Amino acid sequence: MKPPFEIKGIKDFAYITSRKLPNEQGEKSGEVFMWRRKGEEEFNYKLKCPYCGDEQESSVVFKRRPYRVRCSNCGKSILIEKLSKK
Ligand SMILES: [Zn+2]
To answer: Would the pTM count as exceeding 0.70?
Structure first.
């Protein structure tokens, strides 16, 4: 999955990640690209749902861990694991 924008300077981002997402069988059929710009509260994400394959783009403000996003197509909750800098 390509980022929905061109990353010119990583310093503009408070958080940025790209990871594969497993489905119920443990197959990594989904993918998420998530980022938050400095000074913004919202996380933006591009998601390919591992359960139904739907692709969507949205934003979310996380209140507490673990961070989860909900697929707007199949309604399943998707856990974003280890949302921290490596
Ligand atoms: Zn889905």
So the answer is: yes
